[in-house]
Hints:
By secondary structure, the chain is α/β, with parallel strands linked by helices.
Amino acid sequence: MISSRAATSSQQTESRCRRESVNKLEKSLTQILKEQSSSTQERTVKPLPGASDVGMILSDVDGTLLDDEHDVHPRTSEAIRYIRQNHPEIPVIPVTGKQRASCDLVAKRCGLEDMPSGCCHGSIIYTPEGQIESQLGIDPAVVVDVTNVLIQRNRSVFIYEHDSVNCVALQGHPTLDFYEITRGYDPSIRDVRGTNYMDRVASGQVVVTKMFLPMEVSIVPDEMDHLNSVFKNGEDYRMTRALKDIIELIPAKIDKSVALDHFSKMYNVEKGKIMTFGDGENDCGMFKASGMSVSMGNAMALPAQVSDFSTKTNNEGGVGCILDAIFRPEYKYKSDVQETDSGYASAA
């Protein structure tokens, strides 16, 4: 279906890219958080763009390109490969909270091995060859102070570098293993508790591109409020969420719109011709910066409300559905033979 998102976004079931341990977390979560919209203004219905209107495609990974089985839906991979083969002038670039190494499967499935990427929400920009072009970290003193506050509150803390995920604090929980849950998203994890790792952070030897704070969704609002009462969101860090059950802290000057701006200049594509896909609150920056934004059927409420279009869920190949509608509208995917709904919706 390609229809309006504004009226139905809060009713949609959220699904995320998870391994078994992460699926266990979702099943144990309590009531879905009530999201607040930043705007109540009516939006004008946009027509679906034509192929000539799209000059670049940027896409989130978890919950967008990846399905809940940690794979790419065949419809999505086939649609992207079609664009790469028939419209090679259009870059298709992952912009994600994940590490680049954790996106290797996506690159192989979709034929994106020669594409650059924006990782850790844009904190790290990689060249097409996989080399770091730029990276920005959170102030070391802030990282240390945030970690100490969270340890006092018995919360889990994982510190991201470009090539590793470091467990510096782990909440004891009767049913949830936050270490394995975090491994489900980025497997390059190691336990550094009881080492001098935090001394290295404090001395500036480590570039901390992201702090990853998994917890039960029921306590997320209180933890967000507490952190922002101690620290200055927007100055000490930028707080965001790709998932309802995980708070993420990134450098204050970073969000995915920064990566979008970089790639817009790199490929000389005006922002109005950039199409973006995503499902989390961390995607809203690039949604607002791009000319065409698409929220997944499994999206959180805020990105669903601010996007221009919506599509089916990650488990239904939602990215592929809308790309096929734009780039090969006469094409019939095998499951479409029994369906009359194309999977595309314009925001109202």
